[in-house]
Design goal:
By secondary structure, the protein is α/β, with parallel strands linked by helices. The chain has helices at residues 15-18, 30-41, 59-73, 85-92, 98-113, 140-154, 181-187, 196-218, and strands at 7-13, 20-21, 26-27, 47-53, 78-82, 120-124, 161-164. The protein has one domain (7-218): SGNH hydrolase (Rossmann fold). Helix 2 crosses helix 8 (196-218) and helix 4 packs across helix 6 (140-154). The radius of gyration is 17 Å and the shape is globular. InterPro entries: Ester_Hydrolysis_Enzymes, SGNH_hydro, SGNH_hydro_sf.
């Protein structure tokens, strides 16, 4: 049994959160599949997902500012945060640095920490893309992304936070470096974005972590 109040979850990020696919002609946001999984496994749970993704948005200056505005406007119980791909592209053009990205994330963490309603949040590491592939060899893009993702994973002092590391081999094969070409074609639509199946796989990864948090936080306890 779950508590009677509705659970409200903010899905915040860039085009990956929005579900961008086929050059923007189709969208498959991962929250749709999260809704389906929760409805199937926990039909008595009243949970609302709010998708707040924006194509092309950077964490630095853009996302960190909008994040505070969104949280000031509405009350959320949980947050799912995914961003950084566009910042990585800026970094390769010397328009941003790893320090800039991590400082922006830290500002967003502070915003969450100052919010009395948020019970937990999941921070998803910056996903793989074609530039990470092994055929590119010893490239600075992959090294810089690993620095950012390692830092995300190692910020152990941040309260309320759960990290979903998509590089992990146990993450239902979300790591493109561990995929064969056939699987890559199934899950990746272009150099950055997923197919419908890829967004479903992302949702499966999130659900694996998130359902325990939801159950522990919102289930009625019985002696």
């Amino acid at each position: 049994m779950f508590r009677t109040e509705r659970v409200k979850v903010l899905c915040f990020g860039d085009s990956i959160t929005k579900g961008y696919c086929r050059y923007g002609n189709e969208y498959y946001p991962y929250f749709i599949y999260l809704e389906q999984m929760f409805a199937q496994d926990y039909p008595s749970l009243q949970i609302d997902f709010v998708e707040c993704g924006r194509n092309g948005e950077r964490v630095v200056k853009q996302m960190e500012k909008r994040f505070k505005q969104v949280l000031d406007q509405n009350r959320y119980d949980h947050v799912i945060l995914l961003g950084g791909l566009n910042d990585m592209a800026d970094m390769m053009r010397n328009q941003s640095t790893t320090k800039d990205i991590l400082c922006a994330f830290e500002n967003m963490y502070k915003t969450i920490g100052d919010n009395k309603y948020i019970k937990s949040f999941i921070h998803i590491t910056v996903p793989n893309c074609v530039l990470d592939c092994e055929q590119h060899g010893d490239n600075p893009y992959q090294k810089q992304k690993d620095i950012v993702n390692d830092a995300i994973c190692n910020m152990s002092s941040v309260k309320k936070r759960i990290v979903l590391d998509l590089r992990d081999h146990s993450s239902y094969q979300m790591n493109s470096l561990c995929m064969d070409e056939q699987l890559h074609d199934v899950y990746w639509d272009d150099e950055l974005h997923f197919t419908k199946e890829g967004y479903m796989l992302l949702a499966k990864n999130i659900y694996k972590l998130f359902k325990e948090e939801i159950i522990n936080t919102h289930a009625l306890l019985h002696d």
